[in-house]
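User: Now give one protein:

AI:
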Amino acid sequence: MVGFGYDIHRLAEGESLILGGVEIVSSFGTVAHSDGDVLLHALCDALLGAAGLGDIGEHFPDTDAAYKGISSIELLRRVIALVKKEGYQLINIDCTLVLEKPKILPYKPQMRERIAEACSLPLQRVSLKATTSEKLGFVGQGEGIEAYAVCQIEPILSQ
């Protein structure tokens, strides 16, 4: 089974920018209830969708104070546990970040490592790409950041 996830967050000066579980050096960051990791939120939605388990907002609502400032790596771990509980294993992940700045290339190896570790996957099964929107739209004007994620899961075979 395949799942698709998408997320977008507004950017603002003075906020932290955490992507793929890694803090990015920047004067601006995401405005969010949790740590605002748009990449991991998209990935959580892809995983939940693949398993037919709804979306991240259903499991971790932004109206619940328990999730205020929570690490999205922790949310991802909880989603992986839910997917496993339903009898599935994760096969691979493919993600794309869309933002104008800062450049993500220096952070990509660490982001892939954090995601692979949280998902118990070999590094080669975690793909991460970054692009700009060529200065077009909300993201292109530097007002926001988007992330897309696709994952494949399959039933865990009994031994």
